[in-house]
Amino acid sequence: MSPLISTVELARLLDRSPASLVVLDATTTLPGETFDPDLVFRDGHVPGAQRFDIDVFSDPDSSLPHMVPSQGRFARLIGALGVGNDSDVVFYDQTGVASAARGWWLLGLFGHDRVRVLDGGLPVWRAEGRALEAGPPAAPAAARFVAMPRLARLAGLGDVAALSAAAVAGADGSGRARLLDARSRGRFEAIVPEPRAGLPGGHIPGAVNLPFGELLVDGVRFRPTDELRARFAEAGVASGDRVVTSCGSGLTASVLSLGLAICGDGPGLLYDGSWTEWAQSGQPRAEGPARRTSP
């Protein structure tokens, strides 16, 4: 099953109203965005959708943003939204795709594969004149969700430190960098400041920059599969490689993970702490397009 669903297909599913279908609006704000996702949701959302608040579906005890919650917390919260192990879940985003991709990745991390992302999100849904609901959603019937975590999809600081060291050691061309950073080139090269106050710029040594927007058309639709494969190939990734995706806080990295899955290569691993954790950890830091490191 493709990890994407078209607006046409979702509209047909909504017409049939299968009991297994759960639509989730996962919108959160990215750096530079100031709107309130909850207010926008109440102004208009896909009929029957529930709000999936990424900040709620995060570890409340971590000082880092958007960290993966515990198995128990995730199962309790997702069940309260009506998602059970037999549910068909569709995530969408009000403005783009990053938040929906994060929801897709999280549900997959906890063992659920019947999950897709609405290609084009709410912008395309609206542009096509499709039905919208306004106001707060009706309370869903709670479901039982048994989490089956696949932690091999998650990379931690130690994993990435080892990968970084190996990538730097292979800088003569004998190795291929497989750590992809989804942030903009300006942030990756430390040309522009990080949006989080006091956080230094730059990137993990050995990482390759693949801004998540390069996988998209107009910021909302994924490119055709052959174009996605070409973008990954330009970043040094061959089909079948194990790839670790990263970004600022684990959100836009999931767009790269979703792109890999669309290409049939699985989601790879996602470094949840991403640059926010790495830059504060005392690990080496690189700036610019070249491999220049600083302690």
The helix content is 25-40%
CATH fold-type name of the largest domain: Oxidized Rhodanese, domain 1
Q: What string, H for helix and E for strand, traces the elements in order?
A: EHEHEHEHEHEHEHEEEHEHEHEE
Shape by Cα distribution: globular
Tally of discrete structural domains:
2
Low-pLDDT stretches are none
Straight-line distance between termini? 45 Å
Secondary-structure class: alpha/beta
Order of neighbouring strands in the sheet with most strands:
1-5-4-2-3
Mean pLDDT value: 93
CATH homologous superfamily annotation of the largest domain: Rhodanese-like domain
**Rg of Cα set:** 19 Å
Number of helices: 10
Percent in strands: 5-15%
Topology record:
Elements (H helix, E strand, L loop, with lengths): L3 E2 L1 H10 L4 E5 L11 H7 L6 E2 L19 H10 L7 E5 L5 H12 L5 E4 L2 H7 L26 E2 L1 H13 L9 E3 L3 H4 L19 E2 L6 E2 L3 E2 L2 H10 L9 E3 L6 H10 L6 E3 L2 H7 L4 E3 L4 E3 L1
Parallel strand pairs: 1-5, 2-3, 2-4, 4-5, 6-12, 7-8, 7-11, 11-12
Antiparallel strand pairs: 9-10, 13-14
Helix pairs in contact: 4-9
How would you characterize this protein structure?
The protein has helices at about 5-15, 35-45, 70-80, 100-110, 120-125, 155-170, 185-190, 225-235, 255-260, 275-280; strands spanning about 5, 20-25, 50, 90, 115-120, 155, 180, 210, 215, 220, 245, 270, 285, 290-295. With about 300 residues, the protein is of the alpha/beta class. It folds into 2 domains: about 5-150, Oxidized Rhodanese, domain 1; about 150-295, Oxidized Rhodanese, domain 1 (3-Layer(aba) Sandwich), CATH 3.40.250. The strands form 4 sheets. A 5-stranded parallel beta sheet has the order 1-5-4-2-3. It has a 5-stranded parallel beta sheet with strand order 6-12-11-7-8. Strand 7, helix 7 (about 185-190) and strand 8 form a beta-alpha-beta unit. The radius of gyration is 19 Å and the shape is globular. The termini are far apart. The model has no long low-confidence stretch (mean pLDDT about 95).
